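Researcher: I'm preparing a figure for a lab meeting and need a structural model of a single chain. I don't have an experimental structure, so a prediction will have to do for now. The sequence is pasted below. Please return the structure as tokens so I can convert it later.
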Amino acid sequence: MTANVAGYLLQMLAGRWLGVAGFSEFASLLAVQLLCAVPALAMQNVVAREVVRGAGLRAVRAMQWRCAALVAAVAVVLIPVVATVLHVGVPAAAAALGAAPALVILSGEQGILQGANQFRALATVLALAGTARVAPALIALALGGGSAGALLAAAGGLVAAAFLAGRIVRSATASDSADLLLDGRTATVEPREQAIGVLPVLRAVQVQAALMALSSADLIVVRIVLDDADASRYSLGTIATKIAFWLPQAVGVVLYPRMAQPTHSARAIRDALSVLSLIGVVAVIGAALAAPLAPLFAGQDYAPIQGMLWIFALHGAMLAVLQGALLSAIAVERTGLAMVTWVGLAVEVALMLAFADSIGSLIGIAVCVAAVTTTIVALVVLRAARNDDGPGR
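Model: Understood. Here is the structure written out token by token.
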């Protein structure tokens, strides 16, 4: 919650300080940074799964550094591409992409704590990461640093957070006689120290990439199909999407280790999707009730979108359910299911480029595609969970 609130505060204040003329650039670069976080999210899920299955710290950290180096190389190549496509400066693009390697290392440490059921320490790291990313960015914006300065400051904060996370992990696991012992294991059980390949991470990456691309594509397309003022208003509306999307993140974090255990997987998947759906309903109702307050926080320039905030929240709520379903696919290594999401992404972008000419039509397309994609993926996951239960269970 601390990390999420910090992120929303950053976007809210950036929307006010940068104005409708400048916020769309910042929001689009944040969307790029979110896409850069895909390898990090995949890293956390794979690390947590491998820790549940008995991997040791040395093997896990070796994989983290290999993946971080690979991500850094790709980020360097993408800097001129992002600058050209989004019509932003090279420094701003470099600042957005520069956080990617640090995010990989940070998420790997989070995965160790998650897989070990060290949720108190994990909560500390998550709150630390959110604060370390947002506080320097807000200071940079307040000092007039613009998008590039804020994103560069955020990247520096994430580097510091990754270093501190490593210290927290070592402290949380220092009392164990082996490198890392899961709850229920005894000190006589040795962790697996054989090398963990990058391939499992790459398979998880394409699942997370599909989800993040589907959740962020509208923020990139909006700069193509709408003018700067409406693009900024739409970008601010997506704060409601992000709240509904990330608010129930703890559900997946807590249940994921159970999803990775064959004896608990089916029940954990059903529990996760049920809770995520319920939280989504609450988020949509909350957005509808809180809509009149939006212009008070963001400014009167954003008043035209207040009546649509519940639709933005509905988009995020459906994506949250989709995220839960895809997390279960990673936990049981059924990553081919991501193909449904990739198809949904292609359909969404094509429809937006062809038909979207207003804020309403853009979010309407996003909601419809998310609804269809989520329904298909959830049905497949639930059917597989029933089969895993076996006859008579």
